[in-house]
Amino acid sequence: MSTTKTQGAEQGSHSNYRRSLGTIALTATGLGSIIGSGWLFGAERAAAIAGPAAILAWVIGALVALTIALTYTELGSMFPKAGGMVRYGQYSHGSLAGYLAAWANWIAIVSVIPGEATASVQYMSSWDFGWAKALFDGKELTGSGVAVASVLLVFYFFMNWFAVSLFAKTNTAITVFKVVVPILTAGALILAHFDTGNIERAGGFAPNGWSAVFSCVALSGIVWAYNGFQSPLNLAGEARNPGRSLPKAVALSIVIALVIYLALQVAFLFAVPAADLGANGWGGLAYHSPLAELGLAWGLNWLALLLYADAFVSPSGTGMIYAATTSRMIQGVQENGHLPGVFGKVDPKTGIPRPALVLNLVVAFMFLAVFRGWGSLAEVVSVATVISYVTGPVAVMGLRRLSPHMKRPVRLRAMPVIAPIAMIFGSLVLYWGRWPLTGKVILIMAIGLPVWAWYEIGKPLSRGHKPWRELAPHLRAGAWMVAYLLVMAAVSYMGGTEFGGKGYVPEGWDLLLVAVIALTFYYWGVRSSWRNPSLVRVEAEIEAAEAAGAEEPAAESRPGGDKATVGT
């Protein structure tokens, strides 16, 4: 991989980060990411897809997220680096698999930022003012709605421009508010109207069948919601004691969020007026601001006002968090060798990677221009997120095979069982995302490959180098992921009609087929891991830091152009 950056410069960049975040701040970051716009819209969207059985979808989503998160907590404690989620595939499999995983993860996270701004504006459209109602046409934001959302994006940007300490203090306070309001909302709606007869109306508990429950996990914003667990991992470079605080923060944020989301889903299901279910049932609901409108329906004007206010606070808090974490991810991608050096710079006074913040702001504007509705963004984010998930189980076991003696502050004995189960769960959710959405998002993954090809092939050739020999092991190690995406796209196309496919694979057998495919690629992926330059360098870095008596490695150097000199 070509590079002009020196190791010393790299370390200097990382040394500018402030290790000031403890367990509470990291948990607040994770919980603040999870409780964003998802709780404002998730209950209605889940009910529209699965009816009352949406309750089970939230539980399934939490189990999937927690299982996958366990694999990442071990990786995060091993490599407490800023933007950690974009690095692990690079350590275990080299540049191709590492880049695909990083690209998928970044696309999934950066697109959340405009999604949060869109959610705030969509809730605002329910205000009883003509200009407010003109912000949203029932399906997507209007031109004026996009303008207001753009102002919110700039606000998220500047809240992260100055200092990590300001971000942490602001986020903790916002997170407290974001947790209190959903709990208060659920309690108020349950006390105001609790019609258990809604379970039997409009088709019963699972009016659209059990396949709808599974699709609900992937399409209703549930994956979008729980995806916030990775925010503490992306801020690992700023954690005081990552080995202890990261796993606690990740697990606590998921469990607390599950309880809150279940309460909100139950409250929503039983607060919907029977007349609103009508002829089209749960799928016919068309609220612009679901919980606030239910509050107004049952005379809870104070709750509606509170929700309209929180429609800015909750999404804005999450938007600020994701603006922070995605900037660290961009720095990680740059240090992997796939972006210009400017995006790896960290301001020495504030500890903020400001050029990365600017890049993410530009990309957020692009997403806002294309996807103007919360629902459309939630679907894309969810499928892209699942694609990024599958590298965690493979990477954690691949690194156990390659570096069994490496220090692991978090090491689960059951990981050899948890990792393949996590791979199956992630693959099933990807399949549940339904064709053609799965194919479209996999195509988005392919769009990023020219950037990888430029840094790995084009740039070296332009300098007179022949990269093929050095690149060959990276291609072999990453072949499993390319093949996995192609096979999953094919299975999604040929699978059951209930998941958007052509129906060539019988119902039930399609889920078994996906599980078998997941295990096949899991074992292929683990066996494909190799001692690539990135892993060799970070191991040397950790050993040097331990010899010097440091708790964590000071920095990671970019995998550079000296591949051929590194032993395998």
Automatic annotation (TrEMBL):
<feature type="transmembrane region" description="Helical">
    <location>
        <begin position="295"/>
        <end position="313"/>
    </location>
</feature>
<feature type="transmembrane region" description="Helical">
    <location>
        <begin position="53"/>
        <end position="75"/>
    </location>
</feature>
<keyword id="KW-0472">Membrane</keyword>
<dbReference type="Pfam" id="PF13520">
    <property type="entry name" value="AA_permease_2"/>
</dbReference>
<feature type="transmembrane region" description="Helical">
    <location>
        <begin position="209"/>
        <end position="229"/>
    </location>
</feature>
<feature type="transmembrane region" description="Helical">
    <location>
        <begin position="175"/>
        <end position="194"/>
    </location>
</feature>
<feature type="region of interest" description="Disordered">
    <location>
        <begin position="546"/>
        <end position="568"/>
    </location>
</feature>
<dbReference type="InterPro" id="IPR002293">
    <property type="entry name" value="AA/rel_permease1"/>
</dbReference>
<feature type="transmembrane region" description="Helical">
    <location>
        <begin position="508"/>
        <end position="525"/>
    </location>
</feature>
<feature type="transmembrane region" description="Helical">
    <location>
        <begin position="380"/>
        <end position="400"/>
    </location>
</feature>
<feature type="transmembrane region" description="Helical">
    <location>
        <begin position="477"/>
        <end position="496"/>
    </location>
</feature>
<feature type="transmembrane region" description="Helical">
    <location>
        <begin position="438"/>
        <end position="457"/>
    </location>
</feature>
<feature type="transmembrane region" description="Helical">
    <location>
        <begin position="250"/>
        <end position="275"/>
    </location>
</feature>
<feature type="transmembrane region" description="Helical">
    <location>
        <begin position="357"/>
        <end position="374"/>
    </location>
</feature>
<protein>
    <submittedName>
        <fullName>APC family permease</fullName>
    </submittedName>
</protein>
<feature type="transmembrane region" description="Helical">
    <location>
        <begin position="96"/>
        <end position="121"/>
    </location>
</feature>
<dbReference type="InterPro" id="IPR052962">
    <property type="entry name" value="AA_Transporter_AGT"/>
</dbReference>
<feature type="transmembrane region" description="Helical">
    <location>
        <begin position="21"/>
        <end position="41"/>
    </location>
</feature>
<feature type="transmembrane region" description="Helical">
    <location>
        <begin position="412"/>
        <end position="432"/>
    </location>
</feature>
<feature type="transmembrane region" description="Helical">
    <location>
        <begin position="141"/>
        <end position="163"/>
    </location>
</feature>
<keyword id="KW-1133">Transmembrane helix</keyword>
<keyword id="KW-0812">Transmembrane</keyword>
